[in-house]
Amino acid sequence: xxxxxxxxxxxxxxxxxxxxxxxxxxxxxxxxxxxxxxxxxxxxxxxxxxxxxxxxxxxxxxxxxxxxxxxxxxxxxxxxxxxxxxxxxxxxxxxxxxxxxxxxxxxxxxxxxxxxxxxxxxxxxxxxxxxxxxxxxxxxxxxxxxxxxxxxxxxxxxxxxxxxxxxxxxxxxxxxxxxxxxxxxxxxxxxxxxxxxxxxxxxxxxxxxxxxxxxxxxxxxxxxxxxxxxxxxxxxxxxxxxxxxxxxxxxxxxxxxxxxxxxxxxxxxxxxxxxxxxxxxxxxxxxxxxxxxxxxxxxxxxxxxxxxxxxxxxxxxxxxxxxxxxxxxxxxxxxx
Length: 336
Ligand code: UFG
Prior knowledge:
There is one protein chain. It is built from 11 helices and 15 strands. It has helices at residues 11-22, 40-48, 62-71, 86-91, 93-113, 149-167, 201-209, 237-247, 269-280, 304-310, 318-332; strands at residues 2-6, 26-31, 53-56, 76-79, 118-124, 135-136, 172-178, 180-182, 216-219, 231-232, 234-236, 255-261, 267-268, 286-289, 298-301. Helix 9 (269-280) packs across helix 11 (318-332). The protein starts with a strand and ends with a helix. The structure holds uridine-5'-diphosphate-4-deoxy-4-fluoro-alpha-D-galactose. The site of uridine-5'-diphosphate-4-deoxy-4-fluoro-alpha-D-galactose (UFG) has 21 residues, from helix 7 and strand 9.
């Protein structure tokens, strides 16, 4: 199939492109490179021995997007592109609404103009908001008590997709709700490498391990959880990408569908640090710090719908993710 991947040089997008190329699909990437580097394309080529077509464009540029759609007849679209920093979205809400919503609307408009009726959207567990349940299932309400504009854009885009499916009975949209992606391809050639001080746990751990940051602050050790630190459902990014592959056949049935992509098992922040130390064989400097505003004590996926309907479940462990992270770190920079 001929597949458009927006955000295909980003962290999750690049892993998706590798899986698609490995499966023999033809891949066209659109990425603005605002949060990724062009060198990723060479790494993808090195891993998959095939090269995707690449356009450096911003999806907010409707004219440029329309031009690309005129040149290719896509079978389906996988939409990763978007700004994703929770804290930045609180500081710059309009940037997030403008960028994430306008991009998606432009993309859907071009899809409509060119009669492309299948899309997989990169959604997030954040759509469940501050619900009272720690284990999330797709039938739970979404959109309540979401504490940041980034999370709200994910929810709004799901609503937009729902409405497009209602307006066109042949349209099919799948929103995959990711829990906490970590790790990278086992080659260590691609991975997550954010600029500046990371917000997310694993990139922060990586910078401490590389000696670029001194100490990891664990936000809160007084939560009502087994060890007092928050618990999350960390999923290996390669398993996550394979979840998208599994979702492609489900696009044959029109309508809007959602699936959780997670392992179903929570791991605490402290357990993650301890496991990182065990596998790397070195101490990871860390300290307890006050809670981070907006954090939930614990949240994990009930992944049974994806297992039942897509025949997908995770295969890789947190240990695998940490080993792959260490390979990536060795390839990209010195470890402490
Ligand atoms: N944490 C630390 N220290 C750090 C960074 C994180 O202790 O330096 C803790 C957080 O407090 C939290 C846990 O590690 O308890 C995970 O934090 P992340 O920022 O890595 O991930 P979140 O669960 O907060 O957010 C993630 C994605 C969001 C998404 C959300 C949905 O980053 O995009 O899951 O649940 F919206």
